[in-house]
Specification:
Elements (H helix, E strand, L loop, with lengths): L10 H5 L7 E3 L2 H9 L3 E7 L4 H11 L2 H10 E7 L4 H15 L7 E5 L5 E5 L16 H13 L3 H14 L15 H12 L16 H14 L2 H14 L15 E2 L7 E2 L2 E2 H18 L2 H17 L1 E2 L2 E2 L2 E2 L2 E2 L2 E2 L7 H10 L5 H7 L25 H12 L7 E2 L1 E3 H15 L3 H18 E2 L2 E7 L6 E2 L2 H18 L2 H18 E2 L2 E5 L5 E2 L10 H16 L2 H13 L1 H6 L5 H12 L2 E5 L1 H6 L1 H5 L6 E5 L5 E4 L4 E5 L5 H7 L2
Parallel strand pairs: 1-3, 2-3, 22-23
Antiparallel strand pairs: 2-4, 4-5, 6-7, 8-11, 9-10, 11-14, 12-13, 15-17, 16-17, 17-18, 19-20, 20-21, 22-24, 24-25
């Protein structure tokens, strides 16, 4: 018999509708029932493609004994973090307060009947470990908590009140500092300290791509011809694309690697990672002209187009698991690939398998994840890839979360516009996707955060939706020169300023959960930093200093922390450098700008916008003046250099 989640749109909540747990969605009814019946509240937060969320469902929420304890003593609430990032953000802060370390998913929160949290964890196994090595299990935790709630345990209630007091405390920076280019020196020292020189990236394991950090290294190299920034960037990009975390068969990146070498991922693929990496590999190609980087960018875009879209709208994620196990769809046995190559009359099969990192023992649970040995594809790999795809086509494809997310979709649209500077196919896709996203998520003057395709959106937009969509619209203007995109971006920013901004600070959400927006680039780029980007762009394109004022006040408010630990805020550092150095705007006719889009997007200076005018030549301008006219794109770099 299905529980209350049966009526919810969220694919994640739908996954739990047959659990024996008497789940509620997030609703007033659940909280009222908890208080009326003096029952503890259990809040479980996750998302549909989360591997450990599936494990906890199988081991705990499908366990009848666990379900019986929950149903008798708790009111249980399921939350999709992708649908309600405001709720998730609030309880991640609770986890940090209670545990003094970052949380993750699944998130497990226990609250008093008055919804005051006092205990927080992530994945909790059903049983306590016999040797106590992994802490207390779910059955023991819930039994103890139910007793303490029934007894009105004073220590528990005191903890809950302390959390409540602390989570609502607003802490402002103690001081500001002068914005300066020297922040870059501190950033480079901190990045080098985190850098892993063997395989690139900025940790050992697990290893995340850190697209914002890499993008800022690219900007620093372009500004200062910094060899160490260039080497860290290109080595990381080249290592990541060898295969493993990067899917060499279908295309697209998995969320992170569990090992140091980028080989063994958790196999879920998220739209935001792929959008940011598509944009980064494109920008790297435009700077260094490495064809393999362009190839990766196109494969990412094509994967999302072919596997993860419908009606020009992008799905949010695909799962790690299929057929009951992690990675089943993605991995190969030695014998099946050997047989396939033999049947198709390939020569030197053993050598080919070695170059694909395919062995009899495997590199993942006895199976093989395809990875180019030494980063070099074997001969005839494009033919081999078709055969490997044919093997996958016989398998169950991982679950796809068909939610459309405004912020994540906008990230991919921006990446497609960037790629469209090189290949017009992607520009057309970007235009179609942007128009579809606006038609779907901007309804009767209100912007929404998420919906399922062909469903009416219900959750209103957060700061990240306004920021990333405005950024995509500005990219659209810089590609098509359609004034309507610029007007819409300006409108979104005006609304966002009114809803979320106050004296240099930005809220992520308002209303039920008024949460402060983060300045750090964690799961993906900070929405505050994206908003600074958009404000500076509007200043340059509209010659309107009021947007520069809001950008400066935001940077000033965060300046002390930015100067002290810039490695945590790479995109904000990049925008600080942009604010200090200034944009350069290339002005000419639509046709002239479009015809020369590749050359203009390959210019050395990292902070360049384009604007349509009647001027037949290229006019190179700064904030308050234009420096020179030229008819030749190869003269623009020199004009920009001399403008400083």
């Amino acid at each position: 018999m299905s529980n209350r989640l049966e009526k919810e749109d969220s694919p994640y909540l739908q996954q739990h509708k047959e659990n024996p747990v008497d789940w509620y969605p997030w609703c007033d009814e659940a909280f009222k029932k908890a208080e009326d019946e003096n029952k503890a509240i259990f809040i479980s937060i996750g998302y549909s493609s989360c591997h450990w969320c599936h494990v906890m469902e199988e081991k705990v929420f499908e366990n009848q004994e666990c379900a019986d304890i929950l149903n008798e003593h708790f009111i249980c609430i399921k939350v999709d973090r992708e649908e309600r990032p405001d709720i998730d953000k609030h309880y991640q802060e609770v986890h940090m307060l209670l545990n003094q370390r970052a949380g993750g998913w699944p998130t497990s929160i226990f609250c008093t009947p008055q919804n005051k949290p006092f205990f927080a964890g992530t994945y909790i196994p059903a049983e306590s470990a016999q040797d106590g090595s992994q802490g207390m299990g779910f059955k023991d935790i819930t039994t103890i908590i139910s007793q303490k709630v029934a007894e009105n345990d004073s220590k528990m209630l005191n903890t809950a009140q302390q959390v409540e007091d602390n989570i609502n405390k607003v802490v402002h920076p103690s001081q500001a500092t002068v914005l300066k280019e020297d922040f870059t020196k501190n950033f480079m020292l901190q990045v080098k300290n985190n850098y892993e020189p063997s395989y690139g990236g900025f940790s050992t394991s697990p290893k995340f791509p850190h697209a914002s950090t890499l993008g800022t290294l690219l900007a620093i190299d372009k500004l200062y011809d910094d060899k160490s920034a260039r080497d860290m960037l290109t080595h990381s990009l080249n290592s990541m694309k060898q295969g493993g975390m990067y899917d060499l068969v279908d295309g697209g990146f998995c969320r992170y690697s569990t090992d140091n070498k980028w080989i063994v991922p958790h196999f879920e693929k998220m739209l935001y990672d792929n959008a940011l990496l598509c944009d980064l590999y494109t920008s790297s190609y435009l700077t260094y002209k490495d064809e393999s980087h362009l190839h990766v960018a196109k494969e990412i875009a094509d994967f999302w187009h072919n596997f993860m879209s419908e009606d020009n709208l992008f799905y949010s994620a695909s799962d790690a698991d299929s057929e009951g196990n992690e990675g089943t769809y993605f991995t190969y046995s030695y014998h099946e690939v050997h047989k396939l190559l033999q049947e198709n009359n390939f020569d030197n099969i053993e050598t080919t398998l070695e170059k694909l990192s395919i062995t009899k023992n495997g590199n993942f649970e006895g199976k093989n994840i395809i990875r180019f040995k030494d980063g070099i594809a074997p001969t005839r790999y494009e033919d081999i890839k078709i055969l490997l795809s044919s093997l996958r086509s016989k398998r169950e494809y991982p679950f796809i979360d068909m939610k459309v997310q405004t912020s994540w979709s906008a990230m991919m649209i921006k990446a497609l516009f960037n790629l469209g500077n090189i290949d017009n196919t992607y520009k057309q896709r970007a235009i179609e996707s942007l128009n579809s996203l606006l038609n779907t998520m901007y309804v009767d003057g209100t912007l929404y955060h998420t919906t399922l395709i062909h469903k009416t959106p219900k959750v209103e937009a957060f700061l990240e939706d306004y920021a990333f969509l405005a950024q995509a619209l500005i990219s659209g203007y810089n590609s098509t020169y359609e004034e309507v995109y610029l007007i819409r971006a300006q409108h979104l920013v005006n609304v966002a300023l009114e809803k979320f901004y106050k004296n240099g600070t930005w809220n992520f959400s308002v209303g039920e959960f008024e949460t402060k927006a983060d300045i750090s680039d964690s799961t993906y780029t900070s929405s505050i930093s994206i908003m600074i980007d958009v404000l500076i762009s509007l200043t340059s394109l509209l010659d309107d200093d009021k947007y520069a004022h809001f950008a400066f006040k935001t940077l000033e408010y965060n300046s002390y922390e930015l100067g002290r630990r810039p490695v945590l805020y790479p995109y904000m550092l990049k925008q600080t450098l942009r604010y200090l150095k200034g944009d350069r705007v290339i002005k000419s006719t639509n046709s002239k700008l479009e015809t020369n889009s590749l050359a203009l997007s390959s210019l050395n200076y990292p902070f360049i916008l384009r604007k349509s005018t009647e001027n037949e030549e290229f006019m190179v301008c700064g904030a308050k003046s234009c420096f020179a006219n030229t008819d030749k794109t190869d003269e623009i770099n020199d004009i920009i250099t001399k403008s400083f």
